[in-house]
Design brief:
Alpha-Beta Plaits, 4 helices, alpha+beta
């Protein structure tokens, strides 16, 4: 399990992680509490910025920051949705160029 703290360096990268469920909703519902508990670890260490289900609920979105792709891939591999084959993940690295004023503390 990945529990390293992401250090605040200028070279931090940002990621949009697109989750797609590959099993029926009732199976997703059974694992969701464990998935959300796991995500709390990454809110606590500063990796995750926000997350939530897509609407309609066919998957979810995570927005994260980390120093490298390997950290993100390790985080995903240990996520109960991944480990139990509930969902697939697409990782998209992005570089914020503009943001709302209230988000300046995150990106500045």
């Amino acid at each position: 399990m990945v529990l390293e703290v992401v250090s605040m360096v200028q070279n931090v990268k940002y990621y949009i992680i697109h989750i797609t469920y590959v099993v029926p909703q009732n199976e997703v519902d059974l694992v969701r509490p464990e998935h959300r508990e796991y995500l709390k670890l990454f809110y606590d260490n500063g990796t995750l910025l926000f997350s939530g289900p897509r609407m309609p609920p066919t998957g979810g979105i995570l927005v994260a920051k980390a120093e490298n792709d390997d950290f993100i891939r390790e985080m995903i591999a240990a996520d109960p949705f991944s480990a139990k084959k509930i969902a697939t993940y697409e990782v998209i690295e992005m570089k914020p160029a503009m943001w709302a004023t209230e988000l300046a503390p995150i990106f500045s």
